[in-house]
């Protein structure tokens, strides 16, 4: 009799333990579901917030004439072959390339062979002793684009290129160089001194990095990167024309 009672108590204890285990698992499951719901809600909210923030960021910078948010470079001519030049106004090799390429590019743009697009970058800011000369000069290039004088500005500013690891030109000196190239007017001066297009320069540089542009100058002809030399560029243009 005592044995049956003990067995009955043991069975009751087992059932009680099993019931407690089921309650514990149910509590864990309910808690997990609640956490998941919170996380999902937070994720959706976060995604909405990030999308909204990114949309705001995309709208928070001004664009110079000719540039778009999808293609932030500045076209200076229109023709059949696309030529994209990525440059930094602090870059000595960019100056060398631009000096040698100016003649052929003028010929190609003059007869509407190419759509020439400049992409001014901020890659060499670290070489201007904390003054962000690459950004400031590139932003001024955007102002020159508004005046339809970007090629003139590019030639002039490279002609006064400061040495790497210097402070670069001041904004007033940039204005002086531009004025010497015939780019004048109150709107232009205000654009340069206010750095109206500084955020645009950052966007151009981010887009260049996303495209795999790692150095300046970099040249693309009809979407294909070519060696940054005048001969390679002209050969590619002639082949594509």
From TrEMBL:
Where would you find the membrane-spanning parts of this chain? Answer: 28-50
Do you know which InterPro entries this protein is assigned to? Thioredoxin-like_fold (IPR012336), Thioredoxin-like_sf (IPR036249)
* Protein's UniProt keywords contain Disulfide bond: yes
Provide a Gene Ontology MF annotation, just one. Answer: oxidoreductase activity
Q: Which Gene3D superfamilies does the entry link to?
A: Glutaredoxin (3.40.30.10)
What keywords were assigned to this record?
Disulfide bond, Membrane, Oxidoreductase, Redox-active center, Signal, Transmembrane, Transmembrane helix
Where the record annotates domain Thioredoxin-like fold, the positions are 81-236
- State the Pfam families in the record: Thioredoxin_4 (PF13462)
PANTHER family reported for this sequence: DISULFIDE BOND FORMATION PROTEIN D, GLUTATHIONE S-TRANSFERASE KAPPA
Q: Which family does it belong to?
A: Belongs to the thioredoxin family. DsbA subfamily.
According to UniProt, the name of this protein is Thioredoxin-like fold domain-containing protein
Species whose genome carries this gene: Actinocatenispora thailandica
